[in-house]
Design brief:
The protein is α+β, with helices and mostly antiparallel strands. The protein is built from 5 helices and 10 strands, in the order αααααββββββββββ.
Amino acid sequence: MEQHLPDRPSIDQRIAQRLKSLRLERGWSLEELARRSDVSRATLSRLENAEVSGTASVLGRLCAAYGLPMSRLMHMVEEAFAPLLRPEDQPLWSDPAIGFRRRSVSPPAATLAAEVLECELDPGVRITYDRPPRDGLEHHLLLREGRLTVELDGRSHALLPGDCLRYRLFGPSVFVTPADSPARYILVIV
């Protein structure tokens, strides 16, 4: 069981605080953010109050509304910059409802652009992102284990271990694992 110190908020609490500050920095009401993200006002309120944890899909929609990659949101909630980040200190975010885990391998830095993520998807997972957080965001996806299909701009790419898919994201994207195979991949975002 994870134990939290009373003076240190959990990752979900830090995400909630950051989501609220992003909305307030833009001067948006909950209704305006709901319109821009296609996430209900009630869900937004519960997220900002840390009453629920955001799913990959919901956080993806919010990040798209704010024009930032999800990994950047995760970096925003981390404590401080350190040039070396050991594996035990790399933040891990998960969406247990669908079987998605995302480890931020890169040390968080607001002034540096590239980010490295290690991602794992359970068998039979389908994650759909309606739009990119920022048009033209460059991705390099290296499949380490399992099988993964990535759908971009209506085109499907079936990846096997060792395959690297390089793309710039302009529209919806879909990540799918077959029912009998998980996937573990490295994602570099520039």
